Amino acid sequence: MTLSADEALATTRAVRRRLDLDRPVARGLVDDCLRLAVQAPTSEGNETWHFVVVEDAATRTEIGRIYRDIWMSYTGVAPEDDRPGEAPRERSSRYLATVIGRAPVHVLFCVEGRPEGAGVGDLAALYGSIIQAGWSFQIAARARGLGTVWTTYHLDREREVADLVGIPYERVTQVGLVPVAHVLGDRPLRPARRRPLDEVLHRDQW
Ligand SMILES: Cc1cc2nc3c(=O)[nH]c(=O)nc-3n(C[C@H](O)[C@H](O)[C@H](O)COP(=O)(O)O)c2cc1C
């Protein structure tokens, strides 16, 4: 697949229902995406990022269980329960909660440091030093026919997931969990409907 930079930026969607749960993802593909991800900017050039690639099925299942439980605690419904009249995005989010543990690969995006007690500038630097790499990773994955979605629900039980995969929680923060899979079907991914730029653009003055 050859995508222009504009196409990749416009069509890197949150992929949930089209994650191919049965097709393995080659380790080399994920590593290639991570090699591009570490070209992203970081605060003051400090490379404080870490990436935990979870291939082990039992670990993914356990992470999936934690994600599902937290999703359920927010929504108050079991993700397996059909909900008539549900908006497509809600359905897609619910679907992911049931299957995330079966995505062939999970990538945990982490950064050295902790947010607790940090000031606004330090927080922006902390999160900004990993999130841009995360988005690069998602775009690189998209260019390789892989689907991803940035997720954060599991962070309510961040320490449990840290213990599961050996992340030193006291000095390293998890910022996102990205399931990775090949995209099911041939239907092209399209640009999303967003608020008109005029509603969010401010020139010179807010
Ligand atoms: C900070 C952040 C946290 C997110 N957390 C979750 C999450 O926990 N679960 C999930 O299914 N999607 C999560 N998403 C994905 C958004 O829901 C997704 O970007 C949104 O549905 C728009 O999708 P689209 O770009 O395909 O239009 C998150 C996105 C961001 C940027």
How is this structure best described in words?
With 206 residues, this protein is of the alpha+beta class. The chain has one domain (5-186): NADH Oxidase (3-Layer(aba) Sandwich). Helices cover 39% and strands 15% of the residues. It is built from six helices and five strands; from the N terminus they run H-E-H-E-H-H-E-H-E-H-E. The protein has helices spanning 5-11, 27-37, 57-75, 88-99, 120-143, 158-165; strands at 19-20, 49-54, 105-112, 146-148, 172-183. Strands 1, 2, 3, 4 and 5 form a five-stranded antiparallel β-sheet that branches. Helix 3 (57-75) crosses helix 4. The longest helix has 24 residues, at 120-143. It is globular and about 45 Å long. Bound molecules: flavin mononucleotide.
**Total count of helical runs of at least 4 residues:** 6
Question: Roughly how many Å apart are the termini?
Answer: 40 Å
Please name the fourth-level CATH homologous superfamily: NADH Oxidase
CATH class: Alpha Beta
Structural class: alpha+beta
Q: Helical percent range?
A: 25-40%
Number of domains: 1
Largest sheet: 5 strands, antiparallel
| Portion in beta strands | 15-25%
Tell the overall outline: globular
Question: What is the number of E strands?
Answer: 5
The radius of gyration is: 18 Å
Order of helices and strands: HEHEHHEHEHE
CATH architecture: 3-Layer(aba) Sandwich
In short:
The longest helix has 24 residues, at 120-143.
